[in-house]
Design brief:
five-stranded antiparallel beta sheet; 36 helices; single chain; BirA Bifunctional Protein, domain 2; 4 domains; alpha/beta; six-stranded parallel beta sheet
């Protein structure tokens, strides 16, 4: 299903892999040697792999020893350094060298280039902590090296950190966040060399499930297919993404002789569930063609990671089909927002779900333990402490009868567990028989037409996602398009033919040229010694060429032309001034600010068909647009609001007092309004609101930055074709379009009227927060100071972060505030929703074990009952809530009643408006099952456009600046992360 990539730190970084990776993702090895661990637990030892082994004199598939890992990944020397040193010493002494000279030359023979530099921390915190541990042991009359209990170690570490912090700053730490930050800063080394890269290859869960319940011969064939699949992926990597760099600043990227890797096949997860996967540790040592040892060009390797993963996925299906006739299909329980996953046909989903739950249980328990730990010791646990808490979480969530250690016993236990889930041993046998008897699927002949078809699909897919892309992006997309459509034997030929066809000079692909070659064409004549094996110049990085398509360039050119096209309706300045004055009279406490006035006047008098304005978060754009709407209506015009999401459209329509629709809805109506030759069908009539768009219509498009290029062109073509005046509002520092976009910046740059900008933030109750938000918007790190000084940033392990965000949200909600709870991913949102619902149920007096009829199963695989907050995730105009509104994606509701047919009656959450006007609607059982989620928390990406009293966001640390900016600008009174 996926191949992931992580760096391996030099020095003692390899020890993690001795404790965990080499020992099957567990630290149970203790002080035993690796060989002893393998013997005791029945594990297959790690083996060497890669074409670079030839230079070391090591055979492929030879066993990896502990000493070899220490030498190669710890010190960057020959894996068999001891043997090499012994032989070289003998040779040099036989040649007449003295002992010292022979030893020096022998040591040189073990080197694979320079040793890895090992950087140590310049802080005295580690030394002070070590001394405190020794002092403690001395105080209890124990040996200074005696192991100290975890709780005591944590207490000592906290005391040392607090004392050193106080000495450094002249005061104690303000809170756990400040102390945790100081500990983290003073614990890590200033720099870390890279000893290697860990590629972990994991098949889809159905493969591990089938492997676990299969007979031993059957299971071995599955494991062999897995090994062949990752070997194919690594072969591609060696030929296309493995290089080193030479010359000053690494200006030349050159070929190498191959990769050196240690691989470890594992059979289960930390939770004890079947989880066939392999760690491939690639050493950061490669040999050039002239025999020099260098390090890997890690940048290119990182860029290739997704492509390597896609090749593994494709080849895994191929090898399983070739060996066993196994077929794959897209997993049916995935929503449109989730990544498509292909699983083995015939493997039951209940068994897949069953063996996926333990990992979640461990994560949940670890979250609880870290939250309790931080509460007890006043700081976030460090990496070593987190590791020990994770071990405890694994033990505490382990079933009473844990799976035995040996392979035979473990497989027998897995089969028994599967029999329990499926209903007996016979049911397991039925699954195995069904998987092996799936009939073959007819496939098209991979002829020229097929090549062209796949090429067109891959090009369309990669262009939809990105305005510009590179070769690795294309190759990954070709793998996705070919998966399941091609016979395994045809793959090597067809995948290269599609790649070549797509990038052929006769295709619609356009490559960005080299300006130096344009100025000096003679530079094209590169001598052979400055070319790589594939003929490309060594001064040109692999995967560095940027591509786009003729259609993308044409679309962007047409949009830029629309940006400079005069036209559109203008308003007399007197009408605009009157609307502004009327608003200011009605709102003397908060009149329009100069930025709002400038945008209103610019939009009213621009004389352009399309014009834009920048609207940072909280700057009062909808208020300004409401005034513009008033002026437009006063002069006999009509106004239509539009936005990329239903929630944003509803907010805009409510603010300006006019109809508002989504961009997709209009485009869908237009797409359906085309005649069809099939059966003489006629297109449906255009709805009246579309027919009403004319040269008196003002179109206000909110959040226009989120509209991708293709949709933007289709939209503006139609609107300007009808003579409408189009005005766009958005912020290029907030979330961008999901698909290929970015042309909005070119349009703004080309326009003869520079976009106006709303400059005064009016949303926040505190002036300081308004200024801080503008700093975050432009990436000023000093802006974080305000949030830190005002206690808005809360640090901790993920479990503590989630718990803190939930508790703060719950406290605000209990006080009657409109609080929102946000997270970057659906998984975190789901965890927060579960926590919030559990707390709600715990607070009510009714028993929580209500009958089945009182609960409904939702699209996010959770359940809900009367009183729960839920979120609709699909627009459905058929579900009317009043004359002007319907069920929209992103709206939150409270379940009022659950009906016997599993449909539900829900009440719209209004947050401050007249509760008697709240919308009520009945959602069908089908809608509930497919499009209704728990709604206590939401993703950051879905929250743009939301305004609340307070906002609490649980961050993972991997968010973009745009996501952070959006999350920290939702609350009027406070925003916490």
């Amino acid at each position: 299903m996926v191949a992931t990539m992580h760096k391996v730190a030099a020095g003692n970084g390899y020890e993690y892999y001795l404790r965990n990776t080499a020992a099957n993702d567990t630290s149970a090895r203790g002080r035993a040697s690796l060989a002893e661990y393998y013997d005791e637990h029945g594990e297959a030892p790690g083996t060497w792999s890669g074409t670079g082994l030839t230079a070391l004199g090591i055979d492929a598939d030879a066993e990896v020893t502990e000493d070899q890992m220490r030498n190669l990944f710890g010190e960057g020397i020959h894996p068999n350094a001891e043997l090499v040193r012994e032989r070289a010493t003998a040779v040099h002494q036989a040649a007449g060298a003295g002992p010292a000279e022979a030893a020096r030359l022998a040591e040189k023979a073990t080197r694979l280039g320079n040793r890895y530099p090992v950087y140590t921390s310049t802080s005295g915190f580690r030394a002070a902590t070590a001394q405190a541990y020794r002092d403690y042991n001395t105080s209890i009359d124990a040996c200074v090296t005696t192991s100290i209990p975890d709780a005591v170690r944590a207490r000592i570490r906290t005391e040392v950190a607090t004392d050193m912090f106080t000495t450094e700053y002249g005061r104690g730490p303000l809170d756990a966040r400040e102390l945790s930050g100081w500990v983290a800063k003073n614990s890590r080394p200033d720099r870390t060399a890279v000893a290697g890269y860990d590629f972990t290859f994991s098949p889809p869960k159905s493969v591990s499930v089938l492997w676990a319940i299969a007979t031993p011969p059957f299971a071995e064939m599955i494991a062999t297919a897995h090994r062949r699949a990752y070997s194919d992926a690594l072969i591609w990597m060696e030929g296309n993404a493995l290089f080193t760099r030479l010359g000053r600043n690494g200006v030349r990227q050159v070929d190498v002789q191959g990769v050196i890797a240690a691989r470890f096949d594992h059979r289960d997860s930390r939770a004890g569930d079947p989880d066939l996967h392999t760690h491939v540790l690639i050493a950061n040592r490669v040999r050039t063609e002239d025999g020099k040892w260098r390090t890997i060009d890690g940048a290119t390797l990182h860029e290739a990671a997704v492509t390597i993963s896609e090749i593994y996925d494709t080849r895994l299906e191929h090898h399983l089909e070739t060996a066993l006739g196994i077929r794959f299909a897209t997993r049916p329980d995935r929503t449109s927002e989730q990544v498509r996953v292909r699983e083995i046909v015939g493997v039951p989903l209940p068994l897949i779900h069953h063996w996926s739950r333990r990992g979640t249980a461990i994560t949940d328990r670890l979250d609880t333990l870290t939250a309790a730990w931080q509460a007890a010791f006043g700081r976030e646990p460090g990496p070593g402490e987190i590791h020990r808490l994770a071990q405890r979480a694994t033990l505490e969530t382990r079933p009473n009868k844990h799976l035995p250690g040996s392979r035979t016993e473990q497989r027998a236990a897995w089969r028994a567990e599967a029999a329990t889930v499926l209903g007996g041993d016979d049911a397991v046998d039925v699954v195995l028989a069904r998987v092996l008897s799936v009939p073959p699927v007819p496939r098209p002949v991979p002829d020229g037409a097929f090549i062209t078809h796949i090429s067109d699909q891959a090009l369309a897919a990669v262009s939809d996602k990105r305005a510009t892309w590179r070769e690795f992006n294309l190759r990954a997309e070709i793998e996705r398009q070919l998966r399941g459509t091609l016979a395994p034997a045809d793959w090597p030929r067809v995948v290269e033919q599609v790649h070549t066809h797509t990038l052929a000079p006769t295709s619609s692909v356009v490559a960005r040229g080299d300006p130096d070659l344009t100025e000096q064409p003679d530079l094209r004549a590169v001598p052979a010694w400055l070319r790589r094996r594939d003929g490309t110049p060594t001064h040109t990085r692999a995967n560095s060429r940027i591509y786009t398509t003729e259609s993308t360039l044409a679309a962007e050119a047409e949009l830029i032309a629309l940006a400079v096209e005069p036209g559109g309706r203008t308003l007399h300045p007197g009408h605009v001034a009157m609307a502004i004055a009327d608003y200011n009279t009605a709102h003397p406490d908060q009149p329009l600010n100069p930025g709002q006035v400038r945008v209103i006047e610019s939009f009213a008098a621009a004389g352009m068909a399309v014009h834009t304005a920048n609207a940072p978060a909280g700057t009062g754009k909808t208020t300004a647009m409401a005034v513009l709407t008033t002026a437009w209506h006063a002069t006999g015009g009509t106004v239509l609001g539009m936005a990329p999401t239903a929630a944003a459209a509803a907010n805009l329509g409510e603010a300006i007092g006019a109809r508002a629709e989504t961009v997709d809805k209009l485009l869908n109506v237009l797409d359906r309004h085309h005649p069809s030759i099939d059966l003489g069908d006629y297109p449906p009539s255009l709805p009246q609101w579309v027919l009403d768009i004319n040269d008196t219509t003002l179109i206000i498009i909110d959040e226009h930055v989120q509209i991708p290029t293709a949709k933007r062109l289709q939209l503006l073509r139609y609107l300007t074709g009808q003579g409408a005046t189009v005005r766009c509002l958005g912020d290029d520092r907030q979330l961008p379009a999901i698909d290929a976009g970015g042309v909005h910046a070119d349009m703004a740059h080309a326009s003869p009227h520079a976009p106006s900008t709303l400059t005064e933030v009016v949303r926040f109750a505190h002036r300081g927060e308004a200024l801080a938000s503008t700093g975050i918007r432009v990436g000023d790190p000093l802006a974080l100071a305000w949030y830190l000084d005002h206690g808005r940033i809360h640090a901790g392990h993920l479990g503590s972060v989630y718990e803190d965000a939930y508790r703060a949200w719950a406290a605000d909600t209990a006080q009657g505030a409109h609080a929102v709870m946000l997270a970057p991913t659906h998984d975190i949102v789901k965890a927060l929703n579960v926590r919030a619902r559990a707390h709600r149920l715990a607070q009510i007096s009714a028993p929580t074990d209500a009958p089945f009829e009182a609960h409904v199963f939702l699209a996010d695989q959770l359940v809900a009952s009367a009183g729960d907050t839920v979120r609709t995730r699909r627009n459905d105009p058929r579900l009317r809530v009043n004359e002007h509104d319907w069920v929209r994606n992103g709206h939150t509701w409270t379940i009022h009643e659950i009906h016997p047919d599993q449909s539900v009656t829900v009440v719209r959450q209004t947050h401050g408006t007249d509760p008697t006007a709240a919308a009520v609607v009945r959602l069908s059982a089908e809608y509930v099952r497919d499009h209704l989620h728990l709604g206590y928390a939401a993703t950051i990406d879905s929250a743009q456009g939301i305004t609340a009293d307070t906002c609490h966001v649980a961050l993972s640390g991997r968010e973009s600046r745009q996501q952070f900016y959006v999350a920290m600008t939702r609350g009027r009174h406070a925003n916490h992360a």
